[in-house]
Amino acid sequence: MPRRASRRGRLALLAVPGGLVLLVFFVAPLLAIWADAIAEPGSFRRVLDSPVFWRSVRGSALLTAVASSFSLIVGSLVALHLSRIDARLRQTLMFVIALPLTFSGLIVAYGFILAYGRAGFVTQTLAFVGADPVQLAGILFSPVGLAFASSYYLIPRVVLLVLPVLINFDWTHIAAAESLGARRWRALADVMLPQLVPTLAAAFCLVAAVVFGAYGTALALVGTRVSILPLQLYSMIAETGSDFPAAAALSIVLTGCCSAIIAAGEVVAARREPGDA
């Protein structure tokens, strides 16, 4: 018993730095924002009664669904390919794939502008074959372009989550299913997919929470022309904004939405059986 108590004490001591970081950089700011939100009665009601809020909710939901679904499909296919190649080459490619995670949203947006803007390299290259650079650039500065640019830093997250599961997957199960007469797509759907579903769902929720709350890329690409919650919050706290209690209430709503998405992913991941991990 004393040895067990001593071990628990050491583990608790190791958790202190993480607890302090969580307290200082999450709990304390959240409490301060909550105090600002409830300082003026009716701040939450003003937010929920605003038609701009519900338009932003629809815009954020659509952007999240499109960008997350596209990133999940592409990232899963990339992870599947990486799981089937040599380990050294896979490690090198993973270094390259993970690079976008080191960039801020503004850097990503400016990179896409330089590549796909009206004077961008890709746009000008396509213009030589008859494409209209104005129309191509217009796509970038639209919700479709925003979803495309957001996928640049969402796909690596999907790859990092799905790849370990695919590396540890026993492909002899697929061979056994095919030897019994199942086609390849049927074997993948019946044998591999059930083992991947919890990880895919967790990856989808993670990237959905990221894109739902991100504003740097959206601000640089579309400004405030697209109605999404992060840009609405930005407009409320910019120089022209003056209703800070409502902005604090909106930030709490946005935090709650992202936390709910992450919690959903954690619940799905926690239901995995030990043999599926």
CATH architecture of the largest domain: Orthogonal Bundle
- State the name of the first-level CATH class of the largest domain: Mainly Alpha
* Discrete helix count: 13
Number of strands: 0
Give the number of domains: 2
Gross morphology is: globular
Strand content: under 5%
Class of secondary structure makeup: mainly alpha
Mean pLDDT level: 86
N-to-C SSE string, H for helix and E for strand: HHHHHHHHHHHHH
Give the radius of gyration: 23 Å
Uncertain spans, ≥5 residues at pLDDT below 50? 273-277
**In percent, how helical is the residue content?**
over 70%
CATH topology of the largest domain: MetI-like fold
User: In the CATH hierarchy, what is the superfamily of the largest domain?
Assistant: MetI-like
Q: What is the straight-line distance between the termini?
A: 32 Å
Largest sheet: none
Structural notes for this entry:
- The structure is a single chain.
- By secondary structure, the protein is mainly α.
- It folds into two domains: 1-38, no CATH class; 51-276, MetI-like (MetI-like fold), CATH 1.10.3720.
- The chain is 80% helix and 0% strand.
- The chain has helices at 2-38, 43-49, 51-83, 87-98, 105-116, 121-127, 133-140, 143-167, 172-179, 184-213, 216-222, 229-237, 244-270.
- Helix 5 (105-116) packs across helix 8, helix 8 runs antiparallel to helix 11 and helix 10 (184-213) packs antiparallel against helix 13 (244-270).
- The two termini are 32 Å apart.
